[in-house]
Each structure stands twice: as structure tokens, then as C-alpha cells.
Amino acid sequence: MRTRGGYEGLITSKELADRYAALVQKQVGSSGVKKQDEPQQGIATNSPASGAESLDVTTLAGIMASLKTPDDVKEAAGKLSLLKDTGGDNNPLVRSIGIELGEITRMQKELMDGAYPMVLVGNEYLNRTPSQYDDQLLALRNKIKIQAVEKAFHLKDLGEPRPGVGFPRFIYEAAEAAFEKQQWERLSSLLMIYSKSVGGCGHSESMNDGVRAYLAGQQLEKVGLYRFALQQYANCIGQSGSLVPHDQAVSAVERLRKEHPEVFQ
What we know:
The chain is mostly helical and 265 residues long. The chain has a domain at 11-155. 63% of the residues lie in helices and 2% in strands. The chain contains eleven helices and two strands. It has a two-stranded antiparallel ribbon. The longest helix has 22 residues, at 92-113. The relative contact order is 0.06. Residues 1-14 and 31-52 have low confidence and may be disordered.
């Protein structure tokens, strides 16, 4: 039977939104996250906002507020799936963050499986809808990649990237710091990691060839193989790049010239 407000026995879209709001807020509230009163900037919704769209904004904010570490991703992804299944998938930001969380879940699995190179080459940005959550998601990716570096290369004390700094840039800055401290083995590892993180980089690989040549020259010089050491120092000098120990290799050559002139004959 039809009434003034619609059809008797059927719930209106507003009633449906209100019921779903109570359900999802109960889900979000179980994690101790308070409901935010105002919509977050950067979330794309149609104007004027419907009840369901407002719900997307509030619920998504609560889900993201509970997402602190990579260990929280599984629970957050489950809550986001609930939101998507009830209409939130129409929101482009909800879809984008769902893809992001799926990628982070993949990276975690590869970390647990010991597939460290696959972790390092994970895409830096999958979220194509810019929002205030970009730095948060990037930080989660960085944490997983740093764990992979620590396990695969036994590099400690890397610290954490500044907000908004991607993993390749973070590693390159660490390589620059290692160069300044003349930590040549650490520098070689960081240049290798940098190349893997960007899917291959001829320039960084060339610089690493120079670093490795210098390290080989040092080892050969220690055991008295001066002629072979000279060759390695020359190989180092022949490589280009700001992170190649050119000055140190030139000094080594001059030392050999003074102490072992016979190797130049």
C-alpha cells in the first residue's frame, strides 16, 4: 500500500543509510577509533553529498586513523571491504586505497616468504586519487621495504624516511651519507639496493662498479698484489659519478708509485 512517504513496508534510502551507519560505526568503534565530525579534505565525493557519501568520508577516516603499522593492514582492509561491499566502491578514493592496501598486503607476504627483491621493487605510488592519506600509505610501504633491506643486506641503523620521501630517494640519501663517512662496503650495498628499487639504474650500477673496484684494490694491496691492486684503482678512477671514491683511488695510486715503483715499469 502506498503512503505519502513511499511504499509501506519498504525502507527509504535515508533509513538504509542510517542503519548502515550504525553498523559500520560499530565495526570501526571496536578498534577504539572515534568518529570524526567533519569530512576530510581530499576525498572526492559528488555534490551535494548524499547520506551514503558522507558515511564513506567518516568511515574511511576512522579506518585510516586505526592504520598505524603494517600489522594493522589486514584489519583495515577487512573494514574497507565492508565499506566497498555496501556502496563505498563508487567513491574513487575508497577504491584507490583498497588497491593500496592490497599492494601492501602483497609486500608483507613476500617479506615473510623471504622474497626480498620483490619487496624492494614494489610500486612507490598506486593511489591515483591524491588525498591526505598519501604520506601515511607511503610510510607503511617504506617500513616494509626497510625490513627487507635489514634482512637481505644486514644493514642496520637506516632510520626512517622523512614524511613524503619515497624509498629510492631515502636509500640514495643514505648512500650519500655513507660516501661522506667513507663507509665503502655500506655504500656498495646501498647503491645495489637503490638500483633494485628503481627497477635498474645504469648510473648507480656504474658508480657501484667504481666502489667495488676500490674495495678490491684495497684487498689486493693488503696481500701484496700491488700490480693487480693498481689495476683495480685504475678501474675505479675510470668510473663516473659523484659517489665513486676517485680521490681515494688517486691517493692509493700515488702511494703505490712512491712505495712500489716497480709496478709502474
